[in-house]
Structures are given as C-alpha cells and as structure tokens.
Q: What sequence folds into this?
C-alpha cells in the first residue's frame, strides 16, 4: 500500500488482479460447477467461503450482495469440513494471492477443491472491484489524493464492472425482499412425548434444513390450506403436515395424505442430515 494514500483497502490494480485472474482462468470449470444444482460445493458452503474472503477485504458491496444471498438460503449447521475451507479462503485473502490448495485435498475431492479455488478467486476479483468504487468516491470527495492517472484507471474499472454488478445488486435486493416476507420457521409439532416413532423424530430434525431457504418457506408455510405428505422407511411411517404457518409430524400414514414417499432407511437418514438433493433419487413417490 502507498503510505501517502489514506484509503485502507486494496483496490483493483493490475498487479493485484493478475494472480486472481490467472487462478480464475485455471479453475473456470470449477466456478461453473459451483453454481450448478448438483455442484461439488453446496450453495451455503459457497456463500460462507465468499463471506470469509469478503470480511478480510472489507468490500461492503459484496458483503451486502452475498449477505443477502446467505440470509435467503438460510442458516443451517455447517459441515465439519468447512473449517478447512474457510481457513484456506481467509489465508488466501490475507496473502493477497492464491495459496497452495493441498490442505484441502485431505477433506475434499478434486472437483470440490477446484470449486473452492475458483470461488475464492472470483470473490477476490469482485472485492477488489468493489473497493475500487469506494476508492474512487474517496478521491472525488478529496478524502484521498486525486491522482488523475490512478483515478482514470479506477473509472475504467468501475465502468467495465457496472454491467455485471447491476444484475447482482438487483438479485440481492430481490432475495432480501423474499427473506423479509418469508414467515419465521415455527416449532415442529410432534406427537405427545414418548409416542413419536423414530422416523417422526428424524423428520422433525430434517424439516428446519429443508425449509431454511426463504423462498421455500414463503411458499410452503404460506399455503392457505394444510398439505399432508406421508413418508415410509422400511416398516416405519410418518406424516408431515405443512401450510398456514404450521409444521407438524405425526406417526403413520394419515388418511388425508396426498402423496406417499417410500424409501430405504439409509437414504432417509441422510435426508434428515440435510443432503436433500443427493438422496431424492433413492426414493419413490406415489399418490397415497
């Protein structure tokens, strides 16, 4: 940093962008995969990595956009492997360059490592550009030296980034609005203490994860009528009732259940732990 410049944050100077753009070019397939429905990096994990880097760099625009995204997705218990991911992301941000990703290979497969590297590089570039906007504003308000050549470079950076930033800001505003409209997650109502079967208990633990997403919560809990879905795993069955702001689980297959979902115990146990999308292929759905 130039000791004569009072602006405290790193901005998008060519020398700072170069290593991150190179890293992004190397891991571009990983970046695309991280945003795919069955990508190697869960959306909530991706957003935690992004926020970890952003906290180091101090970009308020990225913090608002991805904070909105994180709130929209909902807060669930992070996976144990996330500690290594977040430590790696923060270390890269503090070093201002991509670091050796070998510590990640002990906890992640190769495609997930590529996705993490690409995510860190992508948000680093975004942070530098966002900080450049604030740096330019500081020049225009005379809080830092005007430096015409540097200011011209910053104007060009902001102009190039604006077409990409505008849709992101719009999407973040929409997610923030949905998150505010979505009802809070109610307590799951279970049968009288001691009477709920094992599947009912598992479902009561899984429902907060399934309904953490604000859009899902808005649609499901906001339904004007209660909907019942029965689930059978092996010889055990339970029914979930959702709608009208209510969330309840009862033993057995209710007579008014619209659908019956059947599957082995193991996939449903993994569903209860939050791996919803990966396990849906192992269950069968038919009308009750």
A:
């Amino acid at each position: 940093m130039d000791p004569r410049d009072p602006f405290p944050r790193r901005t998008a100077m060519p020398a700072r962008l170069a290593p991150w753009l190179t890293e992004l070019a190397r891991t571009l397939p990983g970046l695309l995969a991280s945003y795919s429905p069955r990508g190697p990096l869960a959306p909530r994990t991706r957003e935690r990595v992004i926020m970890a880097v952003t906290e180091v760099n101090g970009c308020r625009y990225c913090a608002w956009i991805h904070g909105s995204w994180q709130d929209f997705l909902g807060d669930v218990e992070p996976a144990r492997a996330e500690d290594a991911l977040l430590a790696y992301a923060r270390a890269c941000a503090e070093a201002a360059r991509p670091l050796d990703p070998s510590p990640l290979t002990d906890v992640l497969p190769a495609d997930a490592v590529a996705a993490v590297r690409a995510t860190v590089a992508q948000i680093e570039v975004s942070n530098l550009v966002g900080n450049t906007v604030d740096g330019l504003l500081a020049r225009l308000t005379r809080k830092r030296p005007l430096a015409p050549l540097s200011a011209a470079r910053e104007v060009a950076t902001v102009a190039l980034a604006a077409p990409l930033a505008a849709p992101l800001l719009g999407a973040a505003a929409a997610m923030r609005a949905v998150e505010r409209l979505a009802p809070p997650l109610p307590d799951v109502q279970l049968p009288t203490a001691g009477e709920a079967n094992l599947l009912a208990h598992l479902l009561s633990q899984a429902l907060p994860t399934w309904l953490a997403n604000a859009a899902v919560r808005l649609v499901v809990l906001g339904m004007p009528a209660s909907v019942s879905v029965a689930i059978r795993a092996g010889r055990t069955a339970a029914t979930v009732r959702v709608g009208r702001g209510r969330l309840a689980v009862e033993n057995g297959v209710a007579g008014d259940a619209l659908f019956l979902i059947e599957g082995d115990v193991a996939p449903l146990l993994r569903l209860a732990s939050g791996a919803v999308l990966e396990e849906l292929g192992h269950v069968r759905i038919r009308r009750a």
User: Anything to note?
Assistant: The CA atoms of residues 232 and 262 lie 5 Å apart. The first helix runs from residue 14 to 26. The domain at 198-287 is CATH 3.30.1050.10 (Nonspecific Lipid-transfer Protein; Chain A). Residues 274-288 have pLDDT under 50 and may be disordered.
